[in-house]
DNA sequence: GTATAACTGAGGTGCGCACCTCAATGCAAG
DNA sequence: CTTGCATTGAGGTGCGCACCTCAGTTATAC
């Protein structure tokens, strides 16, 4: 037999096609005995469902939605591009992807937006938004309405019943710590730490991971308190100037936020910081170029293309009531140097 | 219109379904005018083929084959597992994957094996085998017989018409060089380099990449001539002992080969090499454990799971006469530290 | 025992497309 | 004009499965 079909399966199991269908699709009104006979026959003849036929017969269009921030810099742009790429590629797979750009830092607005998503119009939602109790509740309600949720690349407390796509930020921070610690060697010194804002849970976790490694493994180094740029170029220059004046042995800088353009520009322009080792997060056109030209020394990244595709695969699996393949969906913490860009 | 079908397309283009079919599948006997009308209608109504229906109608089973070495250590095992995983997952996608394990280091045997592959029984072949003129010819002949070839993770000269899955080994070596160079700091010292054999093109390219970085960027370090273990534990211990006796300032070790168990064990056991920085290639249960326990300092890796899935996607695309999505198929050179394992 | 619920089988339809046949039309060369 | 070939349309079949209906059967409760 070339490739057994459901009909062959029915024959092998000694039941009718209708019963095979009931078993395969978990429909009610099947006796334990019939179910067992079908299961055994599946093993015996090596029946494997033809997913193409399933998809065609179901004739279901999967509708997934990405909820992303409305403002950001290059990293957000990168992400949007990856989503629209995936959207194009997956159209032929009966999958339609839409993007909502929301002021995700306004919990009220975000919650309202999530509440307005209709169960009928969407099978899964991937949300990238900062932590807040209100948002967490809105996400829970979303799931209770039967919409599959993916917490996407963002620093929310993990909801037990939701899937998560992204890296462990504590580990990412620890990785940055290891890199900086090893790159600096044995001489003592201080490490400047810069973030857009320390309200973001991502940054907090990275900072904790970073500190844990520096304190344990590199006690001769000292990580300074986090500076916050609030995404403002001149403020960044000012606070960095201030720190440099107060500390004369700054040997490294670690940028916690995914958008590194503003802090790195400020650092590069400061005369006293030409020789510091700089580590940032996320690959963007800016950080890539900075790594090439030596303005920074390493990037800790998570591939946004992988992340998007992974989120879609997970939502797709959930929509089909399957479990995602965990091993395949793990997003790696990448360490990028000039040589492996 | 929910989702336009070929019938809708025919209507919009003002032609028959038969002509639409001819255009969509590049069949002969279509006038330029008809073809243009269909193309325009595709744009106009946003027609996208339903791949599930295509797959079902074609009812074609894709048969792909991996040709892998018959002997190896943990890295080979890892690879075999990933292939069999993919094989299981893809059965429902009408894709059957088989594995041939051949003494790939015997060009004659390998060539004969490749020559024996029938066009009828296989749509694509992924070959992992070392360089040799005879093998290269056999691969060319394979392609001329219409079988799609993927050069898989191996150090062959790239054939222009074949696809390649794997990393740039020169860059991988350079990355190792950068890591070791930065980890060692400014003090001068020597770097021991170990390989199973330097006949393998992978090792040669890595060595070249490594040297280029060390020589240019870290001139105070010196990379010693490559040692060859030939996969023999006692020989490894002996040659390493020999090198240690002749050089008293060895500060790092770099293992070129994918199988690192034997050289790293020898290094760990040597009293004078307890503090050297060790960098190896490929993640295996052994190298992972060694990184965790601090016996090695970094792993330069390429994810075998990704590689396998990528090879399959490429063979699938070629079998459908599509082009693979290059951006998605690029295998990254990963830098693994204890923190981002 | 009977009433009821739980199960089972037979059969049909349709998903969107590939692939095939056959007849009909157009067009150019001679 | 005829011959021959390229082009086009109409129509049909089948891929493997989901989903539906309805009649018939078996187990269970009372």
Structure description:
The structure is a homodimer of 341-residue chains. Chain A has helices spanning 6-13, 17-24, 32-45, 51-58, 74-90, 107-115, 133-144, 169-184, 201-217, 233-246, 261-269, 285-292, 304-319, 326-329, and strands at residues 62-69, 95-102, 124-127, 148-152, 163-165, 189-195, 221-228, 250-255, 277-281, 298-301, 334-336. Chain A is α/β, with parallel strands linked by helices and 341 residues long. Chain A has a six-stranded mixed β-sheet with strand order 7-6-8-9-10-11, with helices on both faces. The longest helix of chain A has 17 residues, at 74-90. Chain A is elongated, with a radius of gyration of 25 Å. At the A-B interface, helix 4, helix 8 and strand 11 of A face helix 4, helix 8 and strand 11 of B.
